Amino acid sequence: MRAEVKEYNYDWMMGSITEAAAKLPAGSQKEADLSFRYIPYFRYALGALLETGPPGVQFLKMLSHYYKNITTAHDQGKKIVATTFCSTPLIFYAMGLVPLTFEVLTAVGAMVWKRGMFDYMDYGCEVGMPETSCSAQRGSLGAYLAGLGETIDFIVCDSPGVCDTNATAFAFAAEYLDKPFFQLNYPSTIGDERSQAYHVEDFKAMIGFLEKQTGKKFSYDRLESYLKEMEAQDAITADLEDMLLLVPTPIPPIYTLMIYAGRFCFAGHPEYTRMLEKLRNEAQKRMKAGVPGLKAGVERLRVLMCYIDHYTVDMNFYNYLEERGIANTGSILTRNFRDNNPYCQSLEGSCYGVDTSSPEAMLETVAQMNARLPMVRSIRGPYDQHGMWLDECLALARLYNADCIIYNGTSGCRNTWGMVKPFARDIEKQGIPVHIMYDDAFDDRVESWEASKERLDEFFTVRGLL
Amino acid sequence: MQVFKDVAARIQPQPLLDWKAQGKPVVGYTCSYLPAEIFHAVGILPLRLRGIETDGMDIGDVYFGPFICSFPKCLLQLVGKGMYKFIDGAIITPGCDSMRRLDECWRKAGEDYEGVLPGFYYYFDVPHKSEDHGMDWFIEEIEYLIAEVEGYFGVEVTDEKLRASIAEYNKGRRMLEAVESMRADINPVVSGADVFSATIAGSVMPRNEFTEQMAAWLEALEEKPPLDNVQKRVMLIGSISDDLELIKLIESQSGALVVSENLCFGVRGEGRPVDETGDPIKALADHYLGESICPRMYGKYKQRLALLKQKIEKARVDGVIMQNIRFCDLHGAENALFERDLEALGIPCLRVEREYGPMIDKGRLKLRINAFLERIGRRRARQVAG
Amino acid sequence: MSIVAGCDVGSLTSKAVIMRNNKIIGSFILKSKPRPEDSADAAINGALEAAGLSIGDIACCVGTGYGREKMAFADAAVSEISCHGKGARWLLPSARTVIDIGGQDCKAMKLDPDGHVERFAANDKCASGTGRFLEVMAKVLGLDISELGPLSGKSKSPITLASTCTVWAQADVIKYLNSGESIENIGAGINIAMAKRVAILANSVKPENDVFMTGGVAKNRGVVSTLEKLLGVRIKKARKADPQMAGAIGAAIMAHETISSKESWTKGMEFN
What we know:
The structure holds 3 protein chains of 3 kinds. By secondary structure, chain A is α/β, with parallel strands linked by helices. Chain A has helices at residues 10-23, 29-37, 43-51, 54-72, 90-94, 102-112, 118-126, 135-145, 164-177, 193-214, 220-245, 253-266, 270-289, 316-324, 359-370, 389-399, 414-417, 420-429, 449-462; strands at 80-83, 98-101, 154-157, 181-183, 301-305, 326-328, 404-407, 434-436. Chain A has a 4-stranded parallel β-sheet with strand order 2-1-3-4, sandwiched between helices. In chain A, strands 6-5-7-8 form a 4-stranded parallel β-sheet. Chains in contact: A-B, A-C, B-C.
């Protein structure tokens, strides 16, 4: 690792960057211009966020608070739980903990720095993580393994049964850092009584673990207030999903990122509600004016990302979509499978409702919710099982009028790389073009963004889409 | 012993062909979590599927993506080539992500190649935890599997039959345990390659025949003089391996002997008997899930390390060779932790990455193994001098 | 005093040295031939000629490298990892960590206070992080491999390369060339990509001072200086002899130790 990277803690650095960025609109134009000169590799990303207006500013504030919570957790007498993006932070907030999600932290660094998270990723390999392990965790985890972050108190992951690479990274971290570890484990089926009962048992065990680690009793009253806040958030998200159905859609490509990044950081937290409200306001204004979300003002194509987006330097992927006039109808990260969403009818039995009437009902709700988080729902079990990845993507592509489906992941994703070829073949049989990106969403060294871009262009041209 | 060597070297060895010639069914399985006794109990041969004898990856690569372990790719390659057309059933287990996707890839290959998808095709959902509800889930999975087997093959899996099968399997397990003690002896009489042949044979040949052969081999071993020139006692651990060439490569180096291993085709789950007294399903679940020491059981690293230390001590291991197949997340990450903790105890470790299948990278592996054995040699020389 | 020899037949080059009294009295290096036995013969004959000796004058010869078992004249074969450690120690007595970048291999070794290899890590399979990587890249840029190193000093904004695979990196370089990126920035990017691969390996053995580099890539300043930054240590240079000869020198020293000491540390090694 370069000596300069070791000078400051990673979480502190990102916290400072996002804090400064969030303050930018409050200053003069001259100050802003000067600041932009100093951030050649973050210029577009920051510009794009600020251009969204109030939601972008709120998003940056939210991110900086997220970091601040981490860097000040121990001063405030709180414990830090390291967890994954496919596990809801809501339950940890209800427990008075500070959740730290490796994947979110990796994505932020990847977008902000020219060399992305390479130093930390490579550090992960130096201490023994395979270089083929998932970059999404290895990036920020590398910083924590190197001791360049606030101390993690314990680890909870919910990827066993869903993603080996993810679960292995957490298990490795627990051993390497010598921290207590808990796993939620997912069977290959969803929606049936047997697997639901399993989820609930798992959650009970997890609460037991959290109580043991914190020495505090779990509060269902607190859980209730978070769930109620989440109800409000889900209602707004459903409105945004409705607007995503429109052709052209008033939702800019970057909104989808803001929606899910916010949920990964602050589900059930009022801060996230504020951002969602602002997103909805802006989108509604455009909808009423009949203006598309794309800056160019013309929607030339609609894509469905069947897995995740691309997060390297300066949000170049979102910039690319804007440049080409491509609307992003979302990825597996965007959808939360609440029963008020437009896609619930197309995917019968896939969604869940919220019930706060009793502690048991709340526990059931949280278990149901977590079972439908990204990866946990879509890619558990066989992809062609009823209602799973294949059915889901076909239904969403049709509902949102997507012209094509694009797979983008990481080279660490054993789970999807094990099935994406037959999956793509099945989708193509239904008349929807599919493009598989052989890159890594967090690491440009696997395939440079320039090469990925060229391959996307080639796909759109050859298939007559653009 | 010759029978074991022949069986271990081929996908379709003679005892298997003889079994088929009698019109008896065979069910293939992919992972050490499957209680083979269930099939043995009703006259079905449980066959651990192997990927040896592949000569390319042209079929495997059509269905699997590039960042996937070569073991399931080799299996699929053989499936596509029709090498497994003789099996009546197949059971896929989520041992790891690469392996569980064999489920879809095999089914899809079945759409393209006629007759390669067996009539009985089943997904056996093994949880990643063995406590409370994890164990309950696994027991239910066994019960569902039994019901499916009964329905498809028109058989009845009774507790009596299961108990008898457990007893038969335990005979082999106890004999393997006896062989393990011989390997651990200061003057071992048996090579690692021979033991590995036997454990592989135990998972692919008719079990009763295996038990008989084991008994004969054990008798022969009692008479055998110790092996010459055993100077470097090696343990082999890591990703799935049923390739004798790797052990042979190590043992072809002067003075080196593989005296212990922790591989899922080797003496890992074998060697410890299943309880023969209580409810047979519960006993099988306790053994196959409860005692599992595979890294897919997250959060149990310390138990696995303790087991390795125990084996190292018992077999007087001088050094541990840790291999992982490229893209094997589970063993790749865990090997690094083992290396850290064992080196700290003064046990030399070598970590290597390889591909499953024909040993294309033999030269590369040999160089590393050579250098490692030289290190062990110096250490021993110093110990002798000191 | 006995005369000893070491012969190192590698994938790209073959080397031999003749030593007397711990000093090199003859050496030879050539591009490896298709058959390792031919390379070995040519190397040893070249070195003998330089020393003005014949094979009968050699008391003991150790062979190393990929062709180590194909040398009819050698008394023993020792892995190149052990030999490189030994050779590096001779070239720089204070060396505790040795990074050797060969044609198709990259190794990091940690030596114990006596100069024996205590830990090592080697790259797996792929050509990235090896001399071949630089060779391929230099060819794409139309440069001699020796011209690649100095480019780092001239670049202001090095490019980021797909560094996990040589083939992909090559495609990237071609793309950057076509888009008009400067040779300096591309060259510097190549050196950085190379250094990063090597740094992961080196750090995995936890380097201790002094760190010493052997193999042809030690001559590339761009890679060495980036590596120094990444490892946070100075990388020492050898003055006694060409660092590319380290394997052969180590082999010769082992030959010497074999005949001069009963309690040789080479005991337990594989001798013919």
